[in-house]
Amino acid sequence: MDLEVARSCYRYSRLDSVLIAFESGSELLAYLDAVEEGGQEMPSLVLLDINMPGMDGFEVLRHIRARKRFRKVPIVVMLTDSDDPRDVERAYEHGASGYQVKPMRVQEYVAFFDSLADG
Question: Tell me, what CATH number does 30's domain have?
Fold first, then answer.
């Protein structure tokens, strides 16, 4: 459900790059394997949910940052309901470029995506 809401809000935003969504962290890591092999395009931004099937967002973040090629890709840990300072600190410790609590209203979600277009 969260993924469908994100997709919908993304379509209404000013972002014009293709949104590629994955159901799990392992799917994202497999995509990054393909990027390293030259079979897929380098992502310009990665958005992670803390609560994902299989590996959580922190673990996926650690795996991404362990790969030299992806150390500079902006990664925002988001789509979480947690504003717990320990989660925020943990995200930055693992290499997150930003941390965003999931917007509750569609307008806020679109505004979040629009802010990424401005950055």
Answer: 3.40.50.2300
